[in-house]
Amino acid sequence: MPDRGQSLRHHRKGGRQYLTDIQKPWRRLRARAGLDTLRIHDLRHSFASDALHLGADLTMIGRLLGHTQVQTTARYAHLKTEPIRETANKISEAISGALGPVRP
């Protein structure tokens, strides 16, 4: 987003224009949002984790991120604590139900 007369650096190739340097606009956006330490790389991790939480599998997430190895995607996609707890509780309830009532 160019503003205040500042422009983004572009490269022309085959009649198309490509953005080649996003560092300056990224710094401005972070400063405006009060997120000075946020990196674009952090957004990739959040994207992968959110996709995993929404049920996407690692292969699909990897394709969306441009990864060729599922191991790389697994490092990006972190499970959030609450879904882990919920899943553990569901498994525990299923096992408990299968065992029947507890005898004193």
Please explain how this structure is put together:
The chain is mainly alpha-helical and 104 residues long. 57% of the residues lie in helices and 11% in strands. The protein is built from five helices and two strands. A two-stranded antiparallel sheet has the order 1-2. Strand 1 and strand 2 form a beta hairpin. Helix 3 crosses helix 4. The longest helix has 19 residues. It is elongated, with a radius of gyration of 22 Å. The N terminus is likely disordered.
Low-confidence stretches: 1-7
Strand content: 5-15%
Termini Cα gap: 68 Å
The major sheet is characterized as:
2 strands, antiparallel
Average pLDDT across residues? 82
- As a whole number of angstroms, the C-alpha radius of gyration is 22 Å
Q: How many beta-strand segments?
A: 2
Could you give the order of the helices and strands?
EEHHHHH
Structural class: mainly alpha
Shape: elongated
Fraction of helical residues: 55-70%
Note the total helix count. 5
Q: What order do the strands of the largest sheet run in, or round the barrel if closed?
A: 1-2
Q: What kind of oligomer do you see?
A: single chain
Features:
single chain; 104 residues; mainly alpha; 5 helices; 57% helix; 11% strand; elongated
Question: Quick recap of the structure?
Answer:
57% of the residues lie in helices and 11% in strands. It has helices at residues 23-33, 40-53, 58-65, 70-76, 81-99, and strands spanning 9-13, 16-21. Helix 2 (40-53) packs antiparallel against helix 3 and helix 3 (58-65) crosses helix 4 (70-76).
